[in-house]
Each structure stands twice: as structure tokens, then as C-alpha cells.
């Protein structure tokens, strides 16, 4: 019995060790500026062994996106670093607001002869935001507090009057956190089902900025 438990814990430690190592992505999001030809993001192999790195983009619903990674597939040797280039392939994206896509970076471990090591491919999915040149100067420090909150038929509604995607770090209503607030698109509204939502109250929120860090806390009545 004790021998079985020890073996199980040893396997868990091996899995944990392997899962925590590998390829480290140099960011949590990619901002593609409309006045530039490309965007870049670094990938760093912290292992002693090699990994394959596969990258691609897609729309929010899993369809095709007008961006490609270069190179889309390459070998990253141990303790080495590389830079992925993201290129715009063309298309009619809106020029008065941001567009949101997914950037996928998948790390595939190299082959090993050690049967005691469980190898796991790791997929990182990052937000890819296309920011047109026309709205670039509109992104100011106070832009995040322009969100408008209200109660609509017992549901909490947020309206985004800006041309930017507002990716939430947290939303708190009358002291209770909203589960999975996600984001609200430019010039759009989003509603949340809040159990026993009071007729009026206070909502506070934090947004994730371009650097992947949460902003200060903003508050408003609804």
C-alpha cells in the first residue's frame, strides 16, 4: 500500500516538474499596430532538451485570421531563445475600432528514451489585438473609466463607448466578484446575470492594460 502511494507521488512530482519547465512566452497578449508591418514576441526554452514550437492565429470563433507567424514551426534547442514575427496578410479590418483574434503558441517536447517522464504538449493562447492607426492617440490613461454600468431587467449591463477592447481583470458588484467577466467589445454592451442584484449599488472594475498588468480600480454607481 505504502509502496503504491510512494510511486504515485513520484509520478506526480515528475509530471509537475515537466509541466512547469519548457518554453516561456514573452508576453500575455500581442498588440498589432496598424502603422507597423509586423509585431514580435519572444519564446525562451528553459529546458536542457529541445522543443518544437508551432504557432498559428484564428478568429474568436475558430475561423481564419488575417495574420501569420513566421516561422510557423521550428525547433528550439535547450537554453535557447527565438523571436516569432507576426505578419498581417491583408483584409478589410475596421479602422475606427480594435479587432480581437487569438494567437496560439504550442510547445511540443522532443523525444526521450526515459519511460518515467510523462511528456505534455503545452498550448498557450494569447489575445491578439489589431489597433488601427486612426485610434492610436485615443488610448489615454483615463480611457478605462469611461465604461458605463446600469441595471437592465435585473441584469448588470456594461456599455463600452470607446474604440478599444476592455479586457477585465476583475468586476466586483456590491462587494461580490463576478465570475469570468472576460471582456466587452468596442462600441458594444455586455450583460451579466447577478443573483439577487440590488436595484442600485456600486460596481468596481480593473482592466488589463497593454502590458498584461491590471489597472487601478475604478468605481461607479449603477
TrEMBL record:
Residue ranges of domain Pili assembly chaperone N-terminal in the record: 22-135
Domain Pili assembly chaperone C-terminal per the UniProt entry, residue ranges: 158-214
Record keyword Ubl conjugation present: no
Pfam families in UniProt: PapD_C, PapD_N
Signal peptide as annotated in the record: 1-21
Location of the protein in the cell: Periplasm
Swiss-Prot/TrEMBL GO biological process terms: cell wall organization
A GO cellular component annotation in the UniProt record: outer membrane-bounded periplasmic space
Family: Belongs to the periplasmic pilus chaperone family.
Protein's name in the database: Fimbria/pilus periplasmic chaperone
